[in-house]
Fold each of these.
Amino acid sequence: MFRRAAVEHLLQNLLLPLLIFSKLSESSSEHECKCVLFNVTSGNFQSPEFPAPLEGVPCLFYHFQAPPDHIIRLTFDVFQLPPRIGVCSSSIMLYDHSIDGLIEFGERADFEFCGKEISSGRQFFSKEQHFLLQITSAKEASRGFRGSFLAIPKKNFTSDAVEMAECSYRVEKQKAIIYSPQYPYYYPSKVNCTYHIPQRKGFQIVINSIVMDIGRDAILQIFESVEGKFEKRLIEMVTSVQKSIYVSSTSSLLIYFSAGNNDVERAVGFVIELQYSNAVWSQSPEAASDCQLNVNSENFKEGQLSSDKIGRYTSSSLPTKCQIVLQGYPNEKISVKFTHFNLYVPDNKNVTKRCTEVDNLSADVRVGSRLSRIDEWCGKRTPPNLMSSSNLLQLEYNTKSSKAIRESTNDDIGFRLEYKFHTDWNMGNMKAKVDKRKECRFSFNSSEHTNGKLWSANYPGLYPRNVYCEYIFHGRNDQVVHIHFEYFDIEGFNQCDETTQSDYILFSNYQTHDRTNRRFCGKTAPKGPILSESNYFRMIFSTNDIFDATGFYAHYQFITQEKSQISRVKLTISSSQTPFSVIFFVILFSLFFVIF
Ligand SMILES: *[C@@H]1O[C@H](CO)[C@@H](O)[C@H](O)[C@H]1NC(C)=O
Ligand SMILES: *[C@@H]1O[C@H](CO)[C@@H](O)[C@H](O)[C@H]1NC(C)=O
Ligand SMILES: *[C@@H]1O[C@H](CO)[C@@H](O)[C@H](O)[C@H]1NC(C)=O
Ligand SMILES: *[C@@H]1O[C@H](CO)[C@@H](O)[C@H](O)[C@H]1NC(C)=O
Ligand SMILES: *[C@@H]1O[C@H](CO)[C@@H](O)[C@H](O)[C@H]1NC(C)=O
Ligand SMILES: *[C@@H]1O[C@H](CO)[C@@H](O)[C@H](O)[C@H]1NC(C)=O
């Protein structure tokens, strides 16, 4: 309420300062401009004194300022200034690209309008947070203008696709909208963008334009291709005259957008809606591979791959970059296990340190909407088991050696792997109850097992990125639980907090979030067993989107409290110097003898 009131206040009072201003301006410098700031997220604007005629305003700015990561939209409702006779006598000038709300003295405006040049309903968007509107009006009377403004989050115009590289996207959703770069602002000149929409068995892809204004110098092409095949067929070529498209296909589609020069024409580009809709599937041809092998989980949830299968038809002896893209349904995760790994290393190279200049294999997983590199491997350094926490895992096989060399050695050069798509964390052996409502929550109930093992997802391989897993222990009323780590490798250091971008383990005696407890990370396991205060205990394992390690392996045991006497040891005590914890360990060790 207050915000809106503030704008109206500004507008109502506009009249007064203006009168003062026009008097002042007669005697003062011509370049002195008054500026009205509109720093709320929505409202109306109008020419001073509207609907009274606009006249005698030598220079006035309206500065629309949106919150960070928002842009401004201006919508005109009325616009009527004296007509343009060669030049505009009175006009408004729009500056839509200012990054800081300032413009240079004498800077050319992005638009200048007078007469009835802005039709009712016409919209303008700023590139960034700021939009400046300058009013210059001579003595000649006119009606003036009126409109509304709105701050819109930039993310409203972010394509529903994963950015694989600079302006190269892969669509993963059942239904998605893709926007040309910088939309709704005009697209930058000379960019090339690619949008890959992979085929899905039983579905056809339907593409429909919502906005199509690609400009004279730009080309938008749509190709059809079969996953795993190199050839592609042009099915649609859009030029500036075409204002809409509709395409459907059961094959994969590739949309190429090549921008050309757009600095003068300022075309906005496109908004395309695409959707997978049910279709009768025509038998997919055998996926013969070239240098990109796409594996999805439509038909098989697991399988094997070998480096022999990729690049089979690339006879070239030049370096190649072949990709294996494993993509599951949105709720699936992917695990990869290497069963053979021996990449070619020339005799004169030493790969103990780095993989540059030799054949290598890298792995990336999708984290959010970006690909995140896990690591690179070469020589005989076999990658650990890999698991994604999302539905996309990509391997890239870079070869510098020629195919002939690789095939002529007797060393079984290349790699073989097994992959698996799964919706759970693949931790059935842990015998924990999995909470289906939570992304990653395991519960251990002492009525079912009084002791057992627990470990991190994918142990002993690298744990996945960006996971938040809870291990919950429910004992009987008189029980506590202790957890003893046999293996511990959590990427992080110092206090394991956000400033060090560490992954961590944290224990809590409460169901609610408690920040006071100590975090554990690094390669040294917590000393001695960790004990709960009561029959409820919660262990949190949280990982971020950079760097990984191999996780943990621990065993737990529920013990009845009479035996233990130690239920009061608080986890917040982190200093091992206190006599209290010495006592604690002594009791604990005697306890071990009682139990085992
Ligand atoms: C708008 O600007 C005024 C004056 O500069 C300032 O006092 C106010 O806090 C600003 N409001 C917002 C929402 O930024
Ligand atoms: C921006 O997106 C939000 C959430 O999807 C929606 O509610 C809002 O109407 C959108 N704003 C505009 C101006 O499109
Ligand atoms: C975009 O593609 C065109 C034509 O294929 C090419 O000439 C141009 O160099 C490319 N631009 C960029 C920035 O890659
Ligand atoms: C490779 O480098 C390591 C360490 O620099 C060294 O110990 C090893 O002997 C080298 N091997 C060869 C084959 O040069
Ligand atoms: C992997 O090999 C390619 C091609 O030889 C090379 O460009 C790249 O730098 C290598 N990667 C690493 C991490 O060394
Ligand atoms: C633990 O298991 C017992 C027996 O199956 C059950 O009665 C109890 O509700 C469970 N406790 C929790 C917290 O799930």
Amino acid sequence: MRLFLSLLVASAATVLGQTFEPADFNITEALLEQGVNVSAIPKLSELAERSTTAGCSIACNSLKLVYGSGSIVTQGSPAYDAFTSSFWSTRQGEVNPYCIFKPSKGVDVSVAVLISRLTQCPFAVKSGGHAAFAGASNIEGGITISFELMKAVTLSSDRKTASVEPGNRWGDVYQALSSTDVTVIGGRVFNIGTGGLTTGGGISFFSSIYGWACDNVASYDVVTASGTIVNASPTQFPDLYWALRGGGNNFGLVVNFNLKTVPLPKQAMWGGTRVYTEDQFPKVSKAFSNLVANSPSDPNAGQWVAWLNNGGTKLAAVELYYAKPVANASPIFDEYDAIPSISDSTQIRTLAEYAQTNQASNPNGLREVYWGLTVKLDQRLADEAKDIFYQETAAIANVAGANPVIIYQGITLGQLAAMTKNGGNPLGISTADGPLYLIHIACWWNNASDDTRVYSALSKVLVRISDRAKALGKMNDYIYMNYASQFEDVIKSYGTDNKAKLKSVASKYDPTGVYQTLQPGYFKLDHAPVPNSGYYSGI
Ligand SMILES: Cc1cc2nc3c(=O)[nH]c(=O)nc-3n(C[C@H](O)[C@H](O)[C@H](O)COP(=O)(O)OP(=O)(O)OC[C@H]3O[C@@H](n4cnc5c(N)ncnc54)[C@H](O)[C@@H]3O)c2cc1C
Ligand SMILES: *[C@@H]1O[C@H](CO)[C@@H](O)[C@H](O)[C@H]1NC(C)=O
Ligand SMILES: *[C@@H]1O[C@H](CO)[C@@H](O)[C@H](O)[C@H]1NC(C)=O
Ligand SMILES: *[C@@H]1O[C@H](CO)[C@@H](O)[C@H](O)[C@H]1NC(C)=O
């Protein structure tokens, strides 16, 4: 029985200018085109004929029959437990998929999507597994597609682009490029996945020079709902390319990110953490605001500020970085240099080493939430937001293992300007709004029984900050997907026009809503992952 006939990838040309998926689209025939003969898989053919709903068991068994037992992991095996415990957040690890499917190449992903359609078995996809909430990249009772075997990183011969498969974490990519003098715009912590970060936005050490990760993708190879793999670029399927620049998992599964490279001689840069005590907070807050405002004078420089509570001691941990291997090279850091710190790990090192160091402060295996909003750069608000955070998080000081942090990062004018490259992106922010900064709360804790206490306290922080920002005329509607909580309606925050356009792109490439209903997790076009929670949900 030969199940696997050929590796057919529809070329972009065959579908250009036509209705993307016809109303009489036949999934069985589409599978045959991808080399899978449904008639040769007894259970699947029965299902196709009788349209029963035994869904996921048939789907998983069919994938096993087509790709072999090595590509499928099922419940009750050590490999299954190892998989669920590999998520950064235990909120995701406690979700139990019917099976885990490990595709080796794009066409395997097409087949999985088509089999999901045929069996109506829902799916989720996992790249680096760093989304914090349940169901983002793991699905209860469905197929979790893990990209872990798709780890190619291929530099083009002219070194202008690097093709990166979605099983890569950013550290893998930086290591693969370590013997070159180029890099790509990606995450700042080693284990973060290429898939989630890039489809949601992506702030890198180099973003004030070149823009966000999503604005530095030359093209995406994407598995659409019909299983067809298209190359979306500024010139081919430009509407899909636009939507993928921050629209999340709503349009298809990206099986190759063709990333523009940028120079980074010897991979060397400067950066590290300086820690400041509470008496220095007013100066730190001012230095933060000025560095965001002055970014255009030296976009090599970047920062984030984490305001934390170390067992009752308030501290500010400021990450300072520079895109060149020079210490204190730029007057832009003078203001920070003048503030006495209690520790300082800034140093020259390679990008991969730096990302590895940052990994240490972000351990796996705890309950996690990220929750954020965006405001206009404003000194007063920067001072007050952290005070609100310290006031409201006192309520969870005795929650076992609770470690709340509030983090500020600039969306500088350089970052905003790059968002207009190659036809723009759907995020709904521009230099006319800016500079802006992101405020997000990150918190981990131990016990499920404390979830609602943690959510209530953090929600209050964001409600109060947002109220204050509105009163000062400094609120911006945008919610950054990669730092958003399950309670926030991210796509709505992109604005009415962008949301309408995203929905029209989705209805063109996915007319039956496969990526809305069969892939229910994460930020959907029409609702928050957990809608109507009563917690802070954005504008
Ligand atoms: C410790 C830590 C550090 C971080 N540092 C940064 C940073 O420096 N800059 C920044 O911008 N963000 C950062 N983030 C946020 C990060 O970008 C998000 O958590 C992101 O979702 C993680 O991507 P992932 O692939 O690891 O997640 P996953 O959980 O694997 O995926 C997240 C979502 O992306 C979708 N997705 C994944 N792969 C694909 C694909 N190939 N095609 C379509 N959809 C896909 C999935 O459906 C899923 O819903 C950080 C997060 C953490 C926890
Ligand atoms: C789809 O195609 C198969 C194979 O050609 C055929 O047997 C089946 O009836 C078709 N299904 C529908 C719904 O048209
Ligand atoms: C599909 O499988 C069936 C049953 O094994 C077989 O009769 C048929 O010829 C196959 N079709 C193709 C196109 O290979
Ligand atoms: C909660 O955490 C504490 C301390 O970590 C632990 O002793 C306790 O058993 C946990 N409770 C539950 C319900 O898990």
